[in-house]
Amino acid sequence: MYQIFAEIVLVMHFCFVLFAVFGGLLVFYRRFIIWFHLPAVIWGIFVEIFHLPCPLTQLENGLRELGGKNGYASGGFIDYYVSAILYAHITPQFQTFLGILLLFFNLLVYRFVYQQTHSFE
Q1: What span, in angstroms and rounded, lies between the C-alpha atoms of 65 and 9?
Q2: Helical ranges in the chain per DSSP H
Q3: Are 50 and 68 in contact (CB under 8 A)?
Q4: DSSP secondary-structure letter at 68?
Q5: Residue 33 gets which letter from DSSP?
Q6: CA–CA separation, 19 vs 39, rounded Å?
Q7: Lowest CB count within 10 Å: 43, 60, 68, 99, which one?
Q8: Which pLDDT tens digits describe the chain residue by residue (121 residues)?
Q9: Are 63 and 3 in contact (CB under 8 A)?
């Protein structure tokens, strides 16, 4: 049962990461989403730049351990799942770069949303 909960947390974690990265695009269609996206993207930026532990990573690892399996070590969600596919290892410098990239990507998206919203005035 703990393994099922761990998988649910994994899916939620993955969805949160996608929302933090691309959620600004949803603001084009529904402006109220900004109130959910801004805290998510700010959290994502801080986790990446300051190398903070993510509570979802800790929760998933704890559930896996309760289910009799090892968590996926100290690297965390991105290190385990993304780096296993794309990179051999995510260095702290590259993690900081990802946080900065997340910041600038979302600044561009919100600038475009602002321009679209205020272009009719």
Answers
A1: 14
A2: 2-26, 34-50, 55-66, 76-77, 83-86, 92-118
A3: no
A4: T
A5: G
A6: 11
A7: 68
A8: 888 888 888 888 888 988 999 999 998 889 899 999 999 999 999 988 898 888 888 898 899 889 887 766 555 665 566 545 444 567 888 888 988 999 999 999 999 988 887 775 5
A9: yes
Q: How far apart are CA 51 and CA 86, in angstroms?
A: 19
Mutual angle of helices 2-26 and 34-50, in 10-degree steps: 110
For the chain, which residues make up each domain, given as ranges?
A: 2-118
d(CA 63, CA 34): 32
- Structure token digits, residue 8: 């649910």
One-letter amino acid for residue 119 of the chain: S
Residue written as tokens 């900065």? 100
Buried b (16+ CB within 10 A) or exposed e, 67-89: eeeebbeeebbbbbbebeeeeee
Backbone angles phi, psi at 51, to 5 degrees: 55, 45
- Cβ atoms within 10 A of the Cβ of 29, count? 7
Instruction: Read off the pTM.
Output: 0.75
